[in-house]
Amino acid sequence: MNEVSLLSALIMGLAGSGHCLVMCGGIASSLQLASKQLPSLVVAILYNVGRISSYALAGALVALLGASLAKQNTMIANVLQLMSGVFMILVGIYIMRLASTLKWLESLAKSLIWQHIVKLNKYLVPINTKPKAFLYGVLWGWLPCGLVYSALTWTLQAKSPLEGALIMLAFGAGTLPALIAMGQSALLLQKFINHLVTRIIMGNLLIWYGVYLIIIATDKLVH
Questions:
Q1: Which single residue of 96, 99, 195, 209 could bond 203 by disulfide (Cβ 3.0 to 4.6 Å)?
Q2: Domain coordinates of the chain in residue numbers?
Q3: What is the tens place of the pLDDT at every residue in 1-51?
Q4: Three-state DSSP class for 177?
Q5: How far is CA 23 from CA 101, 204, 223, in A?
Q6: 43: Cβ–Cβ under 8 A, 6 or more apart, which residues?
Q7: Where in this chain does the record put each Urease accessory protein UreH-like transmembrane domain (predicted)?
Q8: Distance between CA 76 and CA 160 in Å, rounded?
Q9: Is the Cβ–Cβ distance between 42 and 220 less than 8 Å?
């Protein structure tokens, strides 16, 4: 297990959590429907556990696919690592808001995956039980978010499904503070995450790590 990969996934999740707050704003209103039956904090925790569970499952499946392809051909493994580096750079640019480098990925995921999964939403609302709160999170874990799917392309270079799951767990953990925080705390955290200096620092960290991955992959392809 590469600890740098886990740390980078955590940073990606933390840096992108401001974007998560915007995309998941509508979900918060739905969660309020459970307030009379369940404590809001319990619902928030169960929802996020479900959401991150979906990330981990997706990471394991994508890593399994990547590992299977890599075993067939060493060049494929290097190409997958090269792709991971490219997406890391795209995420860094996206976080710094220099360009909408991930919008196309969100549109693609929406048409291929989300429009089918979202139909299950009607079976979970109102969220008046703990299992519903958890399953609601599982469902919305597949929301077409460019950051999530970029992280998933990163798991293509994972050596095993477990490593892929851990990378997505680290990413999900990075998004937790902003999505668990309530009221003023959430506003303060969002302000910090969206601050220009914070976005530049985190974006550059991801870009330089992406460049590092590309250099390693290119060197392997050349030699």
A1: 96
A2: 3-222
A3: 555 578 778 887 877 766 666 566 556 556 655 556 777 778 888 888 999
A4: helix
A5: 16, 23, 43
A6: 31, 34, 35, 127, 133
A7: 9-212
A8: 15
A9: no
Estimate to the nearest angstrom the gap between the alpha carbon of 121 and the chain centroid.
Answer: 20
pLDDT given for residue 184 in this prediction: 46
DSSP 141: T
Nearest-angstrom CA–CA distance, 44 and 51? 10
Please give the Cα distance from 110 to 113 (Å, whole number): 6
Residue 129: exposure state from Cβ atoms within 10 A (0-12, 13-18, ≥19): middle
Question: Quick count: other Cβ atoms within 10 Å of Cβ 204?
Answer: 13
List Cα–Cα distances, 215 to 15, 37, 83, 211, 218, in angstroms: 24, 54, 12, 6, 5
Q: Position of tokens 């390693």?
A: 216
Instruction: Indicate the SS3 state at residue 57.
Output: helix
